[in-house]
Amino acid sequence: MELEIFNHQLTANKKYDDLTNDVKELFEKPKDNKIDNLILRSKHAIVYKEMRFRFILIFKKRELSKVILIAMKKQDNPIYSVIENTNERHIKWLLKNYGEPTDKKSWGIIYQFSSMKITSEYDPRSGTSEIVYDLNFSKEN
Question: Containing domain of residue 45, as a range?
């Protein structure tokens, strides 16, 4: 299983320095790009597999570790807001794109692949939901 976004294979060994300038321009610039651990947030919602998401890329030791997706409303305004009922939308999107999950929990669903783990995580207290691609899953287990 590969995660391809912006015509780039996003894998656990993908280095921040290997991202093209076109891809880097989609994200807020890190305050200090010389540090090993970076968090990049997309400037605008980005369409991925027919749904608009805010993207968060997490780099540890300058290597991509996690990709977080949060469903967003369709707007042209650079300031965008989260869709209501994101948890339901995330689960429907995951089922459409990946089929039945490996496991279901009260807080979300889990897909386990040899190269990554994908979870839809929901916090009922805050009402927040996100899809997390854990690219280091196979290294940890």
Answer: 3-140
